[in-house]
Each structure stands twice: as C-alpha cells, then as structure tokens.
Amino acid sequence: LIPEGKIEDHEIEAWEAANYEAEEALVIPAKSSGQGSNETKAGKKKSAVSLRVTEFTGRAWFIKQDDIDTDMIFHNRHLTITDIAEMGQYAMGNLKGYESFATEVQSGDIIFTGKNFGAGSSRQQAVDCFVSLGVSCIVAESFGSIYERNAINAAFPILSAEMIPDLDLQDGDEVYLNIKTGEIRNNRNKKAVTASPFSEVQMEIYQNGGLF
C-alpha cells in the first residue's frame, strides 16, 4: 500500500515518475503536537497537501481509427531520444493524416480514439510524447494492454469508453471529463457518456505522480 500522504512536489510530471526516481521523499502526517503541523520522517515541516486534479476541460481531437500502434505514435527511428522535451515534436508523426499533430496540438487538449490504442511493442516514449505536449488525457474505446500499464504507471490519465461515438464529437469541441467518476460530456451538444473511472489503485498511483 502507498503510505498516507503524498510527494511534496505535487506537480511532478508523469514522465519523471516513469523514467526517473522521484527526488522528493514521501511524507506522512506527524502525531499531533498541539500546533497542527505535519512533519516528514526527517522532522521537516511539509507543505499543505494539494491533490492532483481529477477534472479536465479541453479541446477534443477525434481520431476515428482503431489499432493505432506505438510505431505510429512514436516511430522507432526516434527511440534514441531520451530527453522528454524533445519527444513531443515526433508524436503521431507516423500516423497518416496526423503528421502535423505535434505542431497543432495545444496544452490541455484531450484525444479521443478507437479500439486497441497503443498496440504493438512497448516503448515509454509513446506515452511521454503526449506528456511533453501537455495533452490532458487520452480516451479510447480500448487500449493495448502494455500501453495501458505504461500510462497508468507513469500517472498519465487515460480512460476507456466504449460509447465514444455517442458523444457526436467534432474536432475542436470543448469536452469535460472526470477521471474519478468516469463522466465525459461534450459541452457543445451536452451529450454525455460514462467511461470506466480510475480504480482505487490507479488513483493512488496518479496522486503520487507515478508508480516509481
């Protein structure tokens, strides 16, 4: 079980959790001293707890395609790149019709797509390239199992929703989603569906900034 409390720097990016050991120590509430303060194991005061957001509103990308594999998301010719900041420019660069995705996407955008997203070989860059670009969440009808695990472990928000077509999405629609309840709503037409919400374990990983 993950200890009570959370990493002091609650803004730690998902790629840091996925690729490097977090530099900040986990903190636990100290026994009450009568002054209401909390301390780390080392005895230092910790900052006030502030959970990571569980609700997002962003611009939709509706990619109506199944079986988008990791090579389409992040081509294998770029696998020598280890700097997260450089990965974003290659996101979707091998997916026909979306070669310019990296130059058009905006921070906070939400991707909607079909079945088996992230199929194929395991490569963390296929998750981290979206983190680099500031994508808020990916919602797919289903995910490749390895990709799903990599995203969860890196605390990158993903949701599975079989009823995406019921949202009647258009590119650029403003969409609201809640990873805690699974609610997804198209603010343009008010149509809504319910995705599989984060499990308790997934939420703990997310709130801690990643598994590692």
From TrEMBL:
Species in which this protein is naturally found: marine sediment metagenome
Record bears the keyword Plastid: no
UniProt similarity note: Belongs to the LeuD family. LeuD type 2 subfamily.
Keyword Ribosomal protein found: no
Keywords linked to the UniProt accession: Lyase
One function term, GO molecular function aspect: hydro-lyase activity
Protein's recorded name: Aconitase A/isopropylmalate dehydratase small subunit swivel domain-containing protein
One of the Pfam families matching this protein, by short name: Aconitase_C
Domain Aconitase A/isopropylmalate dehydratase small subunit swivel: 107-155
